[in-house]
Inverse folding.
């Protein structure tokens, strides 16, 4: 029965999107069904075709090794600092082992940003994105700009993806802008994805194939949902063509490494500051809620996790989560949407919110692997607004719709995966 619950999830998700549609008569059902078909195909290939499953497992192993390479740089900076060892053998020099979230995460993000900058400098990143975008453009008949933006979001950050379509931002239709924003919120940047892979490995969870699958499925999924919520009624200047500038902004490879390291450091510091702020604020809110709960019952420990666990239970069940994991998965879905995905992944990997079954772990990993949360909407409006100031009003109006679309796209990927696993 659990395998077929995913069908209920897909119908439920599409129903919500249809309910919020601003023009139901203009929905392009060819685009909708081709996009869902593409998601199913990606999931089937990754989970059911052994050579491709093996390939993505090896990619996951390679991502795990990036943390070891990043540690080489971090060990030079943090060497001499004593940290607890995983085997319980006490304190040792950080360079000799141990996992410190701030040290390891910053190092990994910086290394991945350096690699992306180098690939961008040599034009490799742009060509890979363009090839995949052309395929999506051919299958789904979406415009070149929104195809490029959605595919790029699987590799780079949510604002960086819009840089690749900067020449078109001012002339894009509102439907295209929503599709691009939704894709960036549904996907997850490569640097952050690698961090989550390593957080999973530290906890003994091999979630790399699920994370990679989530990122690949998110692009067509976001287009499907956004085109139901806001169907295209205008003429796109990039319909039927995918064109990208391959020119590098860097002087040479040393310049690319320098800029990549600098950008990675900014992202890493933002992640650390965000986690400290949010987790501290959650602790404050939980303290208040516990005292409110005790007014009605001395044994009732009311908390945000309890609230999320109740609110998101129907969605967790509909996605095909095993019954024993439904409340935990629902809690993680709530954390991801209202706080951020980093907090949700930290709760999953340090088992603060325990998910017991392998299927439950797979579904929730895919469902929370995206940037769709309230703070990211603000970052998008500000970041894309800087690239195209004349569209800032449209961005602000479409922000919450993009959050809805990005969230539903991730849930749909998780529902499809739940039926295949």
């Amino acid at each position: 029965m659990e395998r077929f619950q995913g069908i209920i999830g897909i119908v439920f998700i599409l129903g919500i999107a249809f309910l919020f549609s601003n023009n139901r008569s203009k929905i392009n059902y060819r685009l909708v069904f081709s996009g869902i078909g593409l998601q199913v195909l990606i999931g089937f290939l990754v989970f059911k075709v052994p050579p491709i499953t093996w390939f993505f497992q090896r990619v996951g192993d390679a991502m795990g090794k990036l943390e070891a390479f990043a540690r080489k740089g971090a060990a030079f900076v943090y060497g001499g600092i004593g940290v607890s060892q995983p085997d319980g053998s006490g304190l040792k020099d950080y360079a000799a082992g141990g996992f410190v979230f701030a040290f390891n995460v910053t190092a990994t993000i910086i290394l991945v940003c350096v690699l992306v900058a180098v690939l961008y400098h040599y034009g490799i990143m742009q060509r890979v994105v363009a090839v995949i975008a052309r395929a999506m453009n051919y299958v789904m008949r979406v415009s070149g700009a929104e195809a490029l933006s959605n595919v790029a979001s699987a590799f780079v950050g949510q604002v960086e993806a819009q840089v690749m379509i900067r020449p078109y931002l001012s002339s894009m239709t509102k439907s295209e802008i929503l599709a691009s924003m939704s894709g960036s919120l549904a996907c997850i940047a490569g640097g952050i994805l690698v961090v989550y892979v390593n957080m999973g490995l530290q906890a003994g969870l091999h979630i790399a194939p699920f994370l990679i699958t989530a990122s690949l499925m998110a692009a067509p999924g976001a287009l499907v949902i956004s085109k139901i919520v806001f169907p295209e009624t205008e003429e796109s200047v990039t319909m039927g063509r995918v064109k990208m500038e391959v020119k590098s902004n860097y002087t040479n490879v040393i310049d690319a490494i320098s800029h990549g390291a600098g950008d990675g450091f900014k992202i890493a510091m933002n992640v650390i500051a965000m986690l400290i702020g949010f987790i501290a604020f959650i602790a404050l809110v939980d303290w208040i809620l516990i005292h409110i709960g005790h007014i009605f019952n001395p044994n009732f420990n009311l908390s945000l996790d309890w609230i999320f666990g109740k609110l998101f239970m129907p969605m967790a069940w509909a996605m095909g989560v095993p019954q024993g994991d439904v409340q935990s998965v629902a809690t993680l879905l709530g954390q991801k949407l209202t706080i951020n995905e980093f907090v949700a992944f930290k709760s999953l990997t340090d088992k603060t919110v325990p998910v017991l079954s392998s299927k439950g772990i797979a579904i929730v990993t895919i469902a929370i692997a995206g940037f769709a949360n309230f703070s990211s909407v603000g970052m998008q409006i500000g970041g894309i607004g800087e690239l195209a100031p004349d569209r800032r009003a449209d961005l602000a109006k479409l922000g919450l719709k993009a959050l809805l679309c990005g969230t539903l796209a991730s849930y749909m990927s998780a529902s499809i995966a739940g039926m295949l696993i």
